[in-house]
Amino acid sequence: MLNQPFHFAPYLKTVIWGGDRIAPFKRIHSAPQGVGESWEISAVPGHVSVVDRGPYEGKTLNELVEMFGAELMGHRNFRTYGNSFPLLIKLIDARDDLSVQVHPDDALAMERHGCPGKTEMWHIIDTAPGARIYAGLREKITPKEYELRVADNTLMDVIDCYESAPGDTFFLPAGRIHAIGAGNLLAEIQQTSDITYRIYDYDRRDKDGNPRELHTEQARDAIDYTVYPTYKSEPADDILAECKYFIVRLLEAKAGQNCPIVRSRDSFTIVICTEGEGAVLDTSAMTSFPIRRGDTLLFPATMQSLSAIGPVKLLTVQS
């Protein structure tokens, strides 16, 4: 039976809007300039995570799922997803504004791309002064009006905007227009999908001086044009976000505290440490695993009795 977590080598992605905070946050001493994303746990083809320590070092996430099946995934997840790991975990550091995007839902993504859609959430870890998050429509527009606003560069006038602060959470179901503003360092939890429709990019140019591609027509049918009262999440107790794809909780264990990690689904548990240094304890086997800021650990479904020893602040994720 699986009785230990997995730690994976991060995939550090350099992008034109990337910053310089991910490497020190994760205590990486040598990293390229402009790292905008650290893919912590990924089953996306071409960027599948690889175990970088312990007895399974060198094994890919896909190989682990094939080897252990429901022991790793949980029986419900294994019935639903088979050998496809369902979640993608990232850290994102935005030095500049990211493009305005929307993602298709499962039905549209499967029809067009043969893969799942993308529902996601953001949890803000740190911000620079003036940092903002853009999410959802603040006034009603039609698909035709959307196209006209993209053409005349007025789309941002109808997208809701929030000043962001550490601890804020934004849930982004497929179809919701969104963008990460400059100055945000955040954790992103999402479906395993890399399908993005870019609809506005501030007329930026790539390294060769060409405008970046927009997906105006594809996005038209993917957008949810509903206007909601707010797009900033109000956590219920410790739950930051909950949908059919994932449930994300915040756990803060102070120095000397031993706090249970809630397990409400037949699932693996992903633990992301956003602050501090402590340990995760398997209370059934009385074994502990050190964790510190910047670490992401994947605990198999067989490890059902976990707790956190402070001082740490953790995000816990189940599918």
Describe this structure in words.
- This protein is mostly beta strands.
- The chain has helices spanning about 20-25, 60-70, 70-75, 75-80, 105-115, 145-150, 215-220; strands spanning about 10-20, 35-40, 85-95, 100, 120-125, 130-135, 160-165, 170, 180, 185-190, 195-200, 240, 245-255, 260, 270-280, 285-290, 295-300, 305-310, 310-319.
- Strands 12, 13, 14, 15, 16, 17, 18 and 19 form an 8-stranded antiparallel sheet that branches. A 6-stranded antiparallel sheet has the order 1-2-3-10-5-8, with no helix packed on it. Strands 7-6-9 form a 3-stranded antiparallel sheet, with no helix packed on it.
- A hairpin with a 4-residue loop joins strand 15 and strand 16.
- The mean pLDDT is about 95.
Low-confidence stretches: none
For the biggest sheet, the summary is: 8 strands, antiparallel
Summarize the amount of helix as a percent range: 10-25%
Task: Tally the beta strands.
Answer: 19
Termini, distance in Å?
A: 20 Å
Structural class: mainly beta
Order of helices and strands: EHEHHHEEHEEHEEEEEHEEEEEEEE
Question: What's the SSE blueprint?
Answer:
Elements lengths: L10 E9 L2 H4 L9 E7 L19 H8 L1 H4 L1 H7 L5 E7 L6 E3 L3 H8 L6 E8 L4 E6 L5 H9 L7 E5 L5 E4 L5 E3 L3 E8 L5 E4 L15 H5 L18 E4 L4 E7 L4 E3 L8 E14 L4 E6 L3 E4 L6 E4 L2 E7 L1
Antiparallel strand pairs: 1-2, 2-3, 3-10, 4-11, 5-8, 5-10, 6-7, 6-9, 12-13, 13-19, 14-18, 15-16, 15-17, 15-18, 15-19
